[in-house]
Design brief:
homodimer; 264 residues; Alpha-Beta Plaits; 2 domains; ten-stranded mixed β-sheet; tRNA processing (chains A, B); PsdUridine_synth_cat_dom_sf (chains A, B); PsdUridine_synth_TruA_C (chains A, B)
Chain lengths: 264, 264
Amino acid sequence: MKKTRYKVTVAYDGTHFSGYQVQPNARTVQGELEKALIKIAKGENIRVHGAGRTDAGVHARGQVIHFDLPFYIHPKGLLTGLNTSTPEDVTIVDVEEAEADFHARYLAKGKMYTYRVDNSRFADPFKRLYAYHHRYPMERKRVEKALKHMEGTHDFTSFASTHSDKEDKVRTIYQARVSVDEETNEWLFTFVGNGFLYNMIRILMGTLLEVADGRREADDIPSIIEAKDRESAGLTLSPVGLCMEKVYYEGQEMPGTLKEDHHD
Amino acid sequence: MKKTRYKVTVAYDGTHFSGYQVQPNARTVQGELEKALIKIAKGENIRVHGAGRTDAGVHARGQVIHFDLPFYIHPKGLLTGLNTSTPEDVTIVDVEEAEADFHARYLAKGKMYTYRVDNSRFADPFKRLYAYHHRYPMERKRVEKALKHMEGTHDFTSFASTHSDKEDKVRTIYQARVSVDEETNEWLFTFVGNGFLYNMIRILMGTLLEVADGRREADDIPSIIEAKDRESAGLTLSPVGLCMEKVYYEGQEMPGTLKEDHHD
């Protein structure tokens, strides 16, 4: 039988998960996926590798994983089979057969995350699981100025959890944007970058909300970055509004980056 | 102190409620509202009257309630006070001082309900609490024809739970519509009527989905109504997609009805 590698896109509601990565005595996304795969692989344990380890409470619409099956099964059949076995807060969005050396994490060239803020005076009960409620008036121009300062290649030490185990804290944010729905008071922040440190977006967001409602100035961002000190940035915002939207691989265009060369 | 009657609009996520109405040993919306009011009324029990008793799992964006306080408090203060005391799946949307004889249920001249269907092949995990997942292809023209048959004044015995305690089962549906978001595969059904029997919209919806995917014909609706027999209609659909959107009172325009006379 032919060993086959699959690249699979997964969406999940992070509310009832202790994060993506397997840990003892906790309900995790990886754990649920591996449980579903045992059935498909007829009792064999299949190890799953994810592009990113989302924290407890963080959502995903486009987490990418890879794994090997000891046999070939058509991607369409695997898509249906997995969706039959996963719980209702996990949905398999797409299944592709991948090259034998495809790796969901090592080959990712970038990721897109969104962060949703409900800026209504009183929290919308239907958004409470998928958006962070911030009741204070927010000023869009201030936020946009701060986002511009965040774009580019920087040492993001000030915006990384002190528990981050990465030595090199230089990352590039290709695009940091916000769109506002005036009718529903929902603010949707989008971050595209080549990689994000532990808690980085949640700390960027904590800092952005302080800029938004006037507790901090947009032009303070460069000196916060410069300080390379976690204490200089804002609070780590709740995971509730955070969602891993997309993982980019070779050949896929990323917002905010130049198109790859192509010859007509 | 002046006894004051208030008209209050409430939104709630019905997921974790055993319905609107108070019952022993169950978490209910009315129960949570009365608990919040005890604090505001300094220990006095305040009875709350709702426009409609939504079932377990049914949501609301515009439930209307009334109650009397033994004193006057400014509506804005009451709005903030209530929102401070209610749990996060209940939000007070609006507070008005009402006439002493205002009654949320008896004076309601109509209601608008919506029902959401997620027609994706695999359920969207972010919609699972607020939409019913139906994976079979649905045909919009068939649905629209069936909805037309439902509009008007009919004896809706076929579409009422056999547990309905109402003698008179004649109701008027002023408007029954559907809108479809092709991108997200979400179907939003809207029903405006002068009143709805127990489970009526959920049975209408169960029947509509059978029409939508071809198990029944749109032109069967008149004979189902004619039969006055619960057995002739479709299944009672899950409460998950149902939401009480609005309650209409004297002086408010209702979609599908003629404007009230007014003289220039």
